[in-house]
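We emphasize that the prediction below concerns an isolated chain of 192 residues; any contacts that depend on oligomerization or on bound cofactors are therefore not represented. The input was used exactly as deposited, without trimming of termini.
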Amino acid sequence: MNGGLREYSSSIFKCLFRNYILLAYFAIYPGPHAWISGGWKSVLLIIGGGIAAYKSLELVRRLAERGIKSRAILTGAGAEFVTPLSVSALTGEKVYSDLFSLTDEAQMGHIQLSRSADLVVVAPATADLMAKMANGLANDLASTALLATDKKVLMAPAMNVRMWESPSVRRNRAILEKDGVLFVGPNDGEMA
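Result of the prediction step, given as a token string:
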């Protein structure tokens, strides 16, 4: 283990978006002609806090290369590692972060935002975001969107190995898996 960190890696996302079986599992792969006809839809990316947040920018770029549109919710902690400007430049969309923004609620309410994509991806999925979703807590835009979505949720955890192996994180993951949340990773290695 390199530095005692658990992370999601770009290789996980390569596997996810190249593997037909996984895409079919997520029920967002409309068929082999989708690449030509533009049948792909969209992903709502929730960017959690942590040094691995910078990898979310690579994910947005890779999604765009495949014709998959993405919108992003950037948590307050995530904004400590990546800027709304960089996320917006790559998604071509407004970046959402404030649950109580009157403008955002009037234009794209948090309920609609959570349901407007075909898949919700949380990357990096922090212990905090996992705990909020597992326990039904909603005190910010990201956690509210996670609880309000009617779409599949894919979490890519990234945290210190001791955090990942703690009983509470393991318990929260078990709850989330029972609720149908999908997980990729984490891998051992450097987070930055």
